Amino acid sequence: MHYELSTLSNGLRVITDSMPDVRSVALGVWADAGTRDELSNEAGAAHFLEHLLFKGSERLSAQQIAEAFDAVGGRSNAFTSKEQTCYWARLRDDDLPLGIDILAEMVRRPAFRQHEIDSEKHVVLEEINMNEDDPTDVAYEEFVRALWQGHALERPVLGTKSSITDMTRADIHGFWSRRYHAAATVVAVAGRLDHAPLVEMAEEHFGDWHADESTHDHAPATFQSRVGVRHRDTEQTHLIIGGEGLKRGDDRRFAFGLLNHVMGGGMSSRLFREIREQRGLAYAVYSFKFPYADSGGYGVYVGTTPSQTEQVLHLIGDEFKKLIADGISVGELERAKGHVQGSLALSEEDPNSRMIRLGRDEIAGLDHLSLDETLARYDEVTLDDVHGVATELLTGPKVIGATGPHEAASLEPFVA
């Protein structure tokens, strides 16, 4: 077994990956709570809560938390997604008990002091302002809004200025009390550790935590062609074109990963060569995918001069058509396998990467595949597998999200 998993009597799970040759640990407390779980009065609450938990509990202040990690050379932070929130720390192996103590205190007993809520609102609003000033972030939000219009995945992780301004202590406390409990929590640790003592620490800090049932608003998404544009007089058009992808548990995700790499996943990819290297139409061009429990998406990002936008979109469309008609070559398949497998192998040397893989897969209900098992799944992918995924996904409805000096009508022909 390349990991060990224990479940406490209250449902909290502890999963570990031992790396005896390192002298550090990566610790993550994962909550099965994200943006998609918010009620109408809670837009942005999952991310806002992530900020507030670092403000401390009745026992620990924000300064005490920061000083405790600083005193041992540790680092701590958190991230929020549409489906999960993770509070993490990187520490020397001997300091693992300190990390569990602090993160458990933060997650289980947040203070929710009103003056700190008021102060942190300004921080979150500045984060929203920062994203609003980044045209790439704006294009991404327009793309997500157009792709999942009317679905829970449409909601922006940060919320909106109005939702954050209007959010009350009761709203934030309500989200926390509803979504944070033992059965919806995973403690994932990778690095130099022993599993049994870690389970004892988890029992000490989490064992008396209440356990409730967590439900999610999972539902099929309906996709149709849309264009979302934030009109701005920028020097570049920032655009994303894409459509429906695969759900996170789909067995074809390995073929999709290889397709994504060939399409726009690196400097040897088709779109990078065609748009940047051969034609010089963009500095940044890449493709990506995002899988969720009940839906998925893919996209191609390009930043280009506004007058070149239509040419770039035509080139992306041409590459889609080639992939649909002919698939990829043997050479492309082998290079993609080599890249993905090499990247996975390198990531296995980093405790933080291994902790994230453990926690993410456990909270999502995915099988825990070892490195060798994962490499084997990529090895099994055939040209026909990749072609089948390309044929299904690239022929579906297209969506564009963009920032720049354009009107939506000018881009609609490219998603028709």
Gap from first CA to last CA: 50 Å
How does the helix and strand content classify structurally? alpha+beta
* Approximate helicity band: 40-55%
Hey, roughly how much beta strand do the residues contain?
15-25%
Q: What value does the Rg take, in angstroms?
A: 22 Å
Alpha plus pi helix count: 16
Topology:
Elements: E1 4-7, E2 13-18, E3 24-31, H1 45-53, H2 62-71, E4 75-80, E5 85-92, H3 96-108, H4 114-132, H5 135-147, H6 161-166, H7 169-179, E6 185-191, H8 195-206, E7 226-231, E8 237-244, H9 253-264, H10 270-278, E9 285-291, E10 296-304, H11 309-326, H12 330-347, H13 351-364, H14 371-379, H15 383-393, E11 398-404, H16 408-411
Report on the architecture of this protein.
The chain is an alpha+beta fold and about 425 residues long. The chain has 16 helices and eleven strands. It has helices at about 45-55, 60-70, 95-110, 115-130, 135-145, 160-165, 170-180, 195-205, 255-265, 270-280, 310-325, 330-345, 350-365, 370-380, 385-395, 410; strands at about 5, 15-20, 25-30, 75-80, 85-90, 185-190, 225-230, 235-245, 285-290, 295-305, 400-405. It has a six-stranded mixed β-sheet with strand order 1-2-6-3-5-4, with helices on both faces. The protein has a five-stranded mixed β-sheet with strand order 7-11-8-10-9. A hairpin with a 4-residue loop joins β9 (about 285-290) and β10. It is globular, with a radius of gyration of 22 Å. The termini are far apart.
